[in-house]
Structures are given as C-alpha cells and as structure tokens.
Amino acid sequence: MSGYFEQKVAAVTGAASGLGLGISEELLKRGAEAVFMGDFNEEGLKRESDRLSILYPGKVFPILTDVTKLDQVQKLIFDAKNYAGHLDLLFNNAGMGLTLPTEKITFDIWKFIIDLNLMGVIHGTYTAIPVMREQGFGHIVNTGSIAGKVPVPYQAVYAATKSAVISMTECLQYELENDGLQFSVFCPGNVRTPIFAGVTPPADSISVEEAVEYIFDEIEKGSLMIIFPEAVRQADYLYREKRDDFDKLMKQLADERRENYRTKGTYC
Ligand SMILES: NC(=O)c1ccc[n+]([C@@H]2O[C@H](COP(=O)([O-])OP(=O)(O)OC[C@H]3O[C@@H](n4cnc5c(N)ncnc54)[C@H](O)[C@@H]3O)[C@@H](O)[C@H]2O)c1
C-alpha cells in the first residue's frame, strides 16, 4: 500500500450497500480523513454509517442522496469539498443491474435505468470536475461493468448505460489530465452483492472484499480501465481478438437464458 488514500476526503454514491459500502469501508481502513456516504436508502445509509462511525469516529458523513437528482448530488459533493476545502476522490457508483427479455422492456424502463446508471454518474462527474480543476487535483472513479465492454444477451439496457459511462470516463481522462485530474472506471464481472437479490449469485461471482481490494490496488496505480476478475478479462480478450469464439459463447448464453425464461421465468 502506497498511502494513496491517507488523509483523503472522498464521496461515494450507492454507499449503503454492496460495492459502495465496501469502497467506503476500505477508504476508511486505508486512512481517509473523511468519507461522505451518499445513498437514497435512508435506513440502510443510517445503519451502515452508524456502524462505520463506531469504527472510525468523526470520519463518516452520511448524506441522503438520490443520484438522479442533480441538486442532491451537488449537496453531497459540495459538503465533502467544504469539509476541509478539498475533494480528493469521488466514486460515482450507485446503479442497478437489469437482465430482461426485450418484450418486457418499456420506454419507462429505459428512462429509469438511464437516469440512474448514466445521468447519476454524469451528475457526479460534471459537478466534481470544476471543483477538482480549480484545486488542480482529484480522482473520479466511475463504476462500469463488463457488460459495458462486451455485449451480453438480455442486458441491452444495462449495457448501453455502462458502455456510455466507460467511454465518457476514458474521453475525460485524455481531456483533463493536464489539469491534474485522474479518472478510473472499473468493470467487474459478477460480485456477490444485493444486486442479485432474488436470484442465486452466479458460480463465478467474487466477494465484495476481493473486488474492492483489486479496485483499490488499481486506483493506486492510476489505472484508467480496471477489468476483473480474470475470467472477465478473458471474455474481453475473446471479444476483441477471437470474435468467432466469443459469438459462440454468447449464443450459448442467449439460448440458456431464453430457456430459463421459458421454464422458470427468470434468466438463471
Ligand atoms: N454486483 C455486481 O455483480 C456488479 C457487476 C458489475 C457492476 N456493478 C455495478 O456496481 C454498482 C453497485 O452495485 P452493487 O452490486 O453494489 O449493488 P447494491 O444493490 O448492493 O448497491 C447499490 C446501492 O445503490 C443505491 N442506489 C440505488 N439507486 C440509487 C439512487 N437513485 N440514488 C442513490 N443511491 C441509489 C442502493 O440503495 C444501494 O445501496 C452498480 O453501478 C452496478 O451496476 C455491480
């Protein structure tokens, strides 16, 4: 560990559960000065921030935040910045998965997922950029997904939002690195979080702890693109370099999901 997170002021969205909670806790473990935890789940946010406050007194600041509402995201970010006069790290993480057959997708579902998974990240990113530009430093970490890197059947809506998050993050890195800003986007495979509520997490899923440790090590290195675990890096490689093999795998997956929907009413 290089001490990259020591004395840092950070804001995290989707901080009451899963990866956002794991990220908040790891920031505190690695010596952050203050962690502003944003989430719209009031009860979960209170429970988890109270728990972390006992372990790290004076360093945890829960802010009720719906990322689809610009003014609430602004409050989270400005509160964090005003705490000690600087905002070092922002994790735009709040989001939800969606795996559904096309005939069940409505335009309202498209709007809902775009508002949460894409506009939520845009609200955070474009609020933090002027703050970080003015101070001359800052690191914005966005949560993507492997579904935004490679096409996955039955995930068109989710994948569209995540690939937009990924390309936006990459573009901004090249545009703003001369202003002292650093961007990262992490693209996990399956991580065992409540995102799998109601279904059995896939056999290849990893724990939040494993995911967060990998993410933090890569953030410290200044990696722009963070893809994990290995099986998912292989899928990305196949997609780019061995397209026929990738096509076969995804057609198999589409067949499996089609059959699961027909027989069980769910994708797995
Ligand atoms: N778990 C996985 O397998 C996986 C894989 C790839 C990417 N991701 C991404 O990781 C991120 C976190 O997911 P997770 O698996 O930890 O899920 P999770 O359900 O455990 O956590 C998501 C958190 O976001 C919060 N949230 C939802 N809508 C919100 C809103 N409008 N405003 C503020 N907070 C809101 C929820 O209350 C919850 O606390 C998501 O962006 C997800 O797409 C997860």
Map the helices and strands.
Blueprint: E1 9-13, H1 18-29, E2 34-39, H2 42-55, E3 60-64, H3 70-84, E4 89-92, H4 107-135, E5 138-143, H5 156-176, E6 181-188, H6 208-221, E7 225-228, H7 230-241, H8 243-264
Parallel strand pairs: 1-2, 1-4, 2-3, 4-5, 5-6, 6-7
Bound molecules: nicotinamide-adenine-dinucleotide.
The site of nicotinamide-adenine-dinucleotide has 29 residues, from helix 1.
**Spatial sequence of strands, sheet with the most strands:** 3-2-1-4-5-6-7
Secondary-structure-derived class: alpha/beta
Amount of beta strand = 5-15%
Low-confidence stretches: none
Q: How is the quaternary structure best described? A: single chain
Number of domains: 1
Largest sheet entry:
7 strands, parallel
Q: What fraction, in percent, of the residue positions are helical?
A: 40-55%
Order of helices and strands: EHEHEHEHEHEHEHH
User: What is the global morphology?
Assistant: globular
Do you know the CATH topology? Answer: Rossmann fold
What is the CATH H-level superfamily?
Answer: NAD(P)-binding Rossmann-like Domain
Number of helices: 8
